Amino acid sequence: MTTLRIGIASYEEMKARSLAIARGEVKPGPEEPKVWFTSTESFAKLLSSGNRDLLKIIAETSPASLEELSGLTGRAKSNLSRTLKTLESYGLIRIDRGSRGRVMPRVTADRLELDLPLVEKVVGVETEAG
User: Fold this and answer.
1) Whole-model pTM above 0.85?
2) FRET partner for 49 with CA separation of 20 to 30 A, picked from 20, 56, 90, 98?
3) Do the beta carbons of residue 112 and residue 1 sit within 8 Å?
4) Dist. CA 30–CA 33, nearest whole Å
């Protein structure tokens, strides 16, 4: 598998960075985060112990359906569906489709790295993290 690099930046910082990339002023390097959160709190919420347990079960069992995953975890399918969509939106899993459109979640990374500088340099301007 692979390491997914995570960054924390305010909405304003992410917007400024995205615009600078679009204008060609900044070219993201391969070592830079691929996934961004607006706060450490939102990062921690997504990677709660329950969600980390869910990722571990998915990685270890490769469930063939949402129903199978529900049986393995004891979580309702509706709850799992929402959680899986969120995990997918952050690149932590991908959703494959099996026979009859069955949802088959697959973990995409076996490691996360958090890039959280205390003094951030965003689009050539240094700001103090507060």
Assistant:
1) no
2) 98
3) no
4) 8
If you count them, how many residues does the chain have? 130
Domain count, the chain: 1
The pair of structure tokens assigned to 110 is: 């076996």
At residue 124, the pLDDT reads 47
d(CA 45, CA 41): 6
In terms of residue numbers, what domain contains 19? 3-128
SS3 content of the chain, % helix, strand, coil (to 5): 45, 25, 30
Give pLDDT tens digits for 38-65: 999 999 999 999 999 999 999 999 999 9
Q: Within 10-118, where are the H helices? A: 11-22, 40-46, 49-61, 66-73, 77-89
